[in-house]
Amino acid sequence: MTLLSSSRPRTADRAPQVVAARHPWRWVATAVVLVLLAQLAHGLVTNPGWDWPTFAGYFFEKSVLNALLVTLELTVAGAVLGFLGGIVLAAMRLSPNPVLHAVSWTYTWVFRSVPLIVQLLFWANLGYLYDTLQFGVPFGPGFAEVETLHLVSSFGAALLGLALHEAAYAGEIVRAGIISVDQGQREAAAALGIPRGRQFRRILLPQAMRAILPAAANELVNLLKGTSVVYVLAIGELFYQVQVVYGRSGRVVPLLMVATVWYVVLTAVLSILQYYVERRFARGALRTLPPTPWQRLRAAVTK
Amino acid sequence: MSHPMLEVRGVHKHFGTQEVLHGIDLTAETGSVTVVLGPSGSGKSTLLRCVNHLEKVDSGQVRVDGELIGYRQSGDRLHELSERHILRQRAGIGFVFQNFNLFPHLTALENIAEAPIAALRRSPSEAHGYARELLDRVGLADKASAYPRQLSGGQQQRVAIARALALDPKLVLFDEPTSALDPELVGEVLDVMRGLARTGTTMVVVTHEIGFAREAADTVVFLDAGRVVEQGPPAQVLDAPRHDRTRAFLSKVLT
């Protein structure tokens, strides 16, 4: 005891040392999660049912890649048309004109009510309702006439269905963004005599984008996976194609995994893109932007 | 024929069933500073917003530099102008908001240069050059590339004043420019406004800053319940008010 008291100053003379609280349950939870993950990985590797050689054989197979391209086409075209429609719907909904307002509201109500798959089947059977479509004066003479079957191919029907469905959701997303911008911003722009179109493009939209982007990215991912529903129209997109392959070979699980992994990869690409686009629109909203994961990694390595 | 810079005649305005302005008459000569005082809810802000047609008047007329604002007169009818035309009229009238309303996604410089580029079709380089000059005038030459959120309230309001001046307006309206500021930041904004008053800018200022009114105003207007109760030089309205309501108001704000 005498040795201790001589080598260390007495407690009263120095500031007490801080000891962080211990969290034993965190260690328990970590252990449980790690064991479960190890089991999962073990199963994926050892269970022959996954049939990884077949998976590898079909992942970059030509018909699968072609189908992937169709999926991407449907997603991009559906998103572009859907969001263009959404911007129009949002503008109508926010307009003081009661007719435009009501039409926009009704559109959103109808197209959110009808399941996508039902709607797609309707469009594919448009020829049953109308043999020909005519362009001309409403209720008057027509200038041009087309057979419905020629105008609306099954790809066209799928795209139409996806875009109309998407527009209803996109309209609400765009509207949410616009009403989230402080009323004072529009007033300030109006007081400065900035023309209406430029008020929207330069002042309102960039601020609305902060609220629009996360929801829009969500919707885009939904759409990407939603394209799998158009298999009902026998269009050779990713999900339809893997069904065709496993219909022949009977190897259901590895081919479903082919489609699954491609959807996961595309969603990952979209998520990374979303991160950087959101960051760009955060300028001015935060005092300083946090570093990107890449910048953090570089800082950690060079330190 | 010479005319006042601002002429408000018989302006009425109501929101729903509530009448906010009961026939306001007001004139401001070129180069003069008019301070509008009054209790909250007296219609001061509404009056100011009617001057640049952010609010539509129910009846009466507003003229800036002789030009009827928001309407075109033919015979005994007033036809509302197209939005494009109204926006062009607004470009000649600066407006400074209580909450600054700077564009948060644009830098201080871009905030100021936006209207000259958009409304006057100036080239960006010309507009940015002038914006730098204006930032220097409000004492913020070093803040050109700062975003509004990186500035203090007083600095933001000074940028907002520079933004209002960027169109070389004939008339600048201030809607309680210091009411949203911490007390120690009020002075820097009032200094900028005093500087403007000295250089002959025609200003109409809604404020509770009696000191500013006494020092800088040519005319003080006291508004209560949507009516002009009394107006005149500050020495008269502030130091020898003729109306009980003016006296009651001043005794409250001056304590």
Automatic annotation (TrEMBL), chain A:
Under PROSITE patterns, the record lists: ABC_TM1
Q: Where are the transmembrane segments?
A: 67-89, 109-130, 150-170, 220-240, 252-277
> Gene3D superfamilies per the record?
MetI-like
Task: Tell me the ranges covered by the ABC transmembrane type-1 domain, including all copies.
Answer: 68-274
| Record localization | Cell membrane
Alphabetized, the UniProt keywords read: Amino-acid transport, Cell membrane, Membrane, Transmembrane, Transmembrane helix, Transport
Q: Signal peptide: which range, if any?
A: none
What InterPro entries does the record point to? AA_ABC_transptr_permease_3TM, ArtM/GltK/GlnP/TcyL/YhdX-like, MetI-like, MetI-like_sf
| Top-level division of the source organism's lineage | Bacteria
- Transmembrane in keyword set: yes
In the bilayer, the protein is annotated as: Multi-pass membrane protein
What family classification does the UniProt entry report for this protein?
Belongs to the binding-protein-dependent transport system permease family.
NCBIfam families in the record, alphabetically? HEQRo_perm_3TM (TIGR01726)
State the protein's name.
Answer: Amino acid ABC transporter, permease protein
Native organism: Winogradskya humida
